[in-house]
Structure prediction request, 305 residues.
Amino acid sequence: MLHLTINGEPKDLPEALTVADLLARMGLDRRKVAVEVNEAVVPAVRHAEHRLGEGDRVEVVTLVGGGAPEPQPPADKPLVIGKFTFRSRLITGTGKYANYEQMRDCLAASGCEVTTVAVRRERLIDKEGRNILDYLDLKRYTILPNTAGCFSAEDAVRHARLVKEGLQVLVYTSDDPIMARRLKEAGAASVMPAGSPIGSGQGVLNPNNIRIILEYLKDGDPDYPVIVDAGVGTASDVTVAMELGCDGVLLNTGIAHAQDPLRMAWAMRHACEAGRLAYLAGRIPRKLYAQASSPMEGRIAPSRG
Prediction:
């Protein structure tokens, strides 16, 4: 573990980290920032070779024109699930990462406020004596327990009894519109239809079924949360789900098994925000024929005579 102070804040990061690695983790373009390590400027050409050491003090600065704040998108209403309210519409899982440090960094990069943790009848401490909860900031994240650790009907029923303890249930389901409607009628705080088989990375295979589910569940209840879960493989899959009008996306494998999980976490974050903005903005109608964007009025007419 490498202990650094970055812009005045203590951070714990994996070992063997260069300045270029750090900037990538922070989602920054090294061409647009200046980096100082222990009060000495590190030129951009040396970012990839300059290794950070234990206790280093790192300052990363960029230019802001005239002190003007960065433009922000138009305000959006929050995501409300039961009694909980969130700004981020991306929910991520905690499984399948190479290590807990990678998981922690990817959750932070994704911007998520909710993360899923499997409920299992086993020790919370792994073989190295580490607890996953030590890597989750419980002031930052709402923990969503799931039944991924249930391998029998008995286990599933046992964990379902948690509902009696006052938990609100977000239900995984297929993209069957009738089943989705029945689950809402049964009291689910949110219905989460699968985009495609879990872990397949195939994206949203049947967008028309998702559209019908949205129509059914939001009829007379426009704020009821419908969240696409399972099958997301890359950022464009997230954008498609959000542009359909879904209220959020839950994913895990798409980030954890990417060739570069940290970069993919950033991509998923921006894709979720872009898809939501596009849905609210409203796309132009699809047309069969081309229509020039330049107006036809006011053209120079040929002279006569």
The first strand starts at residue 2 and ends at 6. The chain has two domains: 2-63, 79-281. DSSP finds eight helices and 14 strands in the chain. The domain at 79-281 is CATH 3.20.20.70 (TIM Barrel).
